[in-house]
Specification:
By secondary structure, this protein is of the alpha/beta class. Its main location: periplasm.
């Protein structure tokens, strides 16, 4: 036999043997993905769970996690090219309606994550009592969308009956704590600070009062060009998320305890458990049904309608266009 051919056959046999016992000759490098996120369980719960369980690594992904304070800042960074994808709350229905971002995955319904808190010394017993007062919040976020529902339900109009003080959430909470404003619309976990710092403060209402008629969903969006050029990577993200989501729901106590220990050490475990309960989660199969029957598209569009009205978005892109359920439906079979 030709010596070169003998060598080639030996090399091929060795490579095959190594692969057969789980030792590939050449390990493929993990794909790096720049992921922007908000540090609240409703947004990053599945992500950290997937990173802890190896769900994303199994899909060949190396998530580069970059934390932001608001969804507005997340989208601005992604549009500018600093992020590939992002996970956020209600703002996922905002920028894509402007043609800036493609939504491909939802995390949960922010069932009770948005909350309206009032000072105990303000004498408020209902939302109607807010007339003539200031309310701090971060405009264009989940908290603002929720506050709009509250005001409409009480027959109040923003700018006419109440004054909205637009601040970053940390500053909005600080204003409430100092007494500069008697009310604040926030999202968890900022309620922890309010409970600790303001004696007598109480939650007047949360977003659960408006479910499901005015459900607010949070989820994932990708830069338009990134989404178009990386269909396999988007599929890998969804597969990793599906594994993490179902693990989180089937092993909730263990998963939440790990989240608290490794990613929310400043939040007592009972408090984090309550924050987890503030969102409405569904199994991957349950989500499939809601993708397929148009429920998710409807929920996204409801919040888009709010942004179209308040932000005066010209020629908005409908949720039926900016949300692409196909990759998820292809992966999660009925």
């Amino acid at each position: 036999m030709n010596p070169q051919r003998r060598t080639l056959l030996k090399t091929s046999a060795l490579a095959a043997a190594m692969t057969g016992i789980g030792m590939p000759l050449l390990a493929r490098a993990a794909e790096k993905v720049k992921v922007g996120y908000l540090h609240t369980p409703a947004v990053d719960g599945q992500i950290w769970t997937g990173l802890e369980t190896g769900a994303f690594a199994e899909q060949g992904l190396d998530l580069q996690m970059i934390k932001f304070t608001t969804g507005l800042e997340l989208f601005q960074a992604m549009i500018g090219g600093s992020l590939d994808v992002l996970s956020t709350g209600a703002v996922v229905s905002n920028f894509p309606a402007r043609g800036q971002g493609k939504v491909f995955l939802v995390n949960n319904v922010e069932y009770a994550t948005a909350q309206l808190w009032v000072r105990g010394d303000a004498g408020f017993s209902s939302a109607a009592d807010l007339k003539g007062h200031k309310i701090s919040t971060t405009a264009g976020t989940t908290a603002h969308v929720f506050l709009d529902r509250v005001l409409h339900g009480a027959g109040l109009q923003e700018g006419k009956d109440v004054q909205i003080v637009n601040q970053r959430m940390t500053e909005a909470v600080t204003s409430f704590i100092s007494g500069a404003v008697p009310a604040v619309a926030l999202w968890v976990p900022f309620d922890v600070t309010v409970r600790q710092k303001v004696e007598g403060a109480r939650m007047l209402v949360d977003a659960s009062a408006f479910y499901p008629q005015a459900a607010i969903v949070g989820g994932w969006a990708a830069r338009n060009d990134y989404y178009d050029k990386n269909p396999k990577l988007i599929q890998a993200l969804i597969k990793g998320w599906v594994s993490a989501n179902d693990y989180l729901l089937s092993n909730t106590d263990t998963a939440v305890a790990t989240l608290q220990k490794k990613h929310y050490p400043e939040v007592p475990l009972p408090e984090l458990q309550n924050q987890f309960k503030a969102s409405k989660y569904f199994t991957s199969a349950e989500w499939r049904a809601k993708y397929a029957d148009g429920t998710v598209t409807k929920w996204l569009q409801q919040v888009t309608d709010f942004f179209v009205q308040t932000a005066k978005i010209a020629n908005p892109v409908p949720a039926s266009t900016y949300f692409d359920p196909k990759p998820y439906l292809d992966i999660v079979k009925a």
